[in-house]
Fold:
Amino acid sequence: MTRLAVIGGSGFAGLGQMKVVRREIVRTPYGEPSGPLVIGDIHGVAMLFLPRHGPGHVLPPHRVNYRANLWALKESGATGIVAVAAVGGIGSNCGPGTIALPEQIIDYTYGREHTYCDGSDRQVTHVDFTQPYDPDLRRKLLLAAARAGEPVLDTGVYAATQGPRLETAAEIVRLQRDGATLVGMTGMPEAGLARELGIPYAHLCVVSNWAAGCGDSRERISHADLQSTLDHSIGRVQRVIVALAEALGRA
Ligand code: HPA
Structure:
C-alpha cells in the first residue's frame, strides 16, 4: 500500500488538504522525532506529515533528530518521502520563488548523527548514493507539478551547510565553484538516512532568497523578503503534493 510521507520545512507547518485521522508520538531506538506524526489521507491516499523543526519551529537544523524522524516514518509505513525545504539560490536559474527538484547533493555538515551504522548491533553497509534522490519519485513529482500547472526546475545540486547562521559571501563562492546551485541546512543527513532505510526520497526545494553575495543579497539577506517569498510559495508546493497524491491514488 502507498503511504506518502511529507517532511515539512521552514514555513511549511502542515498539509491544508490532508484529512487528519490522528497524531502519534512514535518512540524509536534513536529517541523522539521532531514531533507527533500527523496521520491521515488526501483524497483517500494514505499520508504522513512530520514538521522537521517540530511544532512551533523550535529545533535548529543541527538539533533535528534526523535518525528518529526517518525511523518513525519507516515504522509508520512510509513508502516514499517528499522532503520540503526552504533554500537559498546560487544558480542563475534559481531565483527567489523557484521550486526546484535537485538531482545531486554535496554535504558540508558536521557533528550530526548521520547513519544507522554506528557500531552497535547493525552490520556496516556502505549504501550506494550515486543518485541520492529517487529517480521514480522525482519523475512522479515532475508529472504532478506539470498537471498542477506549477513550473518546477528539474535539476540542481543541493549544498547542505551546517547553519543555523546563513553563509558568508565567500562560502557561497566556494559552493558555486564546487558546482552547487542551491543551499540549505537540512538536506543531510536526512537523504542519506532515507537511503539507508530504503525509503525513496525526493527533495522539493523552495528558493526563499538569493544566497549570500548573489542577486539582491549582495550586501545582506533580508529576512522580511525571505519570509514573504516563502509565504507566497507554500500554496504552490501544496498543489504539487496534492497532485502527486491524486496520481498515486489513480495508480
Ligand atoms: N542558506 C542556507 N539555508 C537557507 C537559505 C540560505 O541562503 N535560505 C533558506 N535556507
Q: What stands out?
A: The CA atoms of residues 45 and 245 lie 6 Å apart. The first strand starts at residue 3 and ends at 8. Helices lie at 66-75, 135-148, 169-178, 187-197, 223-250. The chain has one domain: 3-250.
